[in-house]
Specification:
Number of helices: 4
Distance between the termini: 9 Å
Number of domains: 2
Strand order of the largest sheet: 1-2
Radius of gyration: 15 Å
Number of strands: 4
Shape: flat
Structural class: alpha+beta
Strand content: 15-25%
Order of helices and strands: EHEHHHEE
Length: 104
């Protein structure tokens, strides 16, 4: 796999310890692990602002854009129906984007 990967993990996850996250990150080339302090297994509920910011930062990263442009899925990213930067997705009349992602 050549696409960048950002793994988000709750530091206080009682079901899946951070050692699992470290192993996952080590096994995936180009993976970056972000451990969210104070968050548990449902980190998107425990710290939604941090999770949102991490996802937005990841999507805005120039390395990700370059990797997407060079990948077989280069026409399958997201779009902005409100006039923002478009990466080739398709917005319907509601303004929602169709996003296809690679399945590994």
């Amino acid at each position: 796999m050549t696409l960048p990967v950002r793994i988000l993990w709750g530091q206080e996850d009682r079901w899946q310890p951070t050692s699992y996250a470290e192993r996952l990150a080590a096994d995936i080339p180009h993976a970056e692990l972000v451990v969210v302090p104070g968050a548990g297994h449902f980190l998107m509920e425990d710290d939604p602002a941090r999770v949102t910011q991490e996802v937005l930062d990841f999507l805005a990263d120039a390395k990700l854009l370059g990797a997407l442009a060079a990948s077989p899925w280069s026409r399958s990213a997201c779009c902005s129906p409100t006039g923002g930067r478009s990466l080739g997705g398709n917005a319907d009349k509601s303004g929602l984007c169709s996003i296809r992602v690679p399945v590994l």
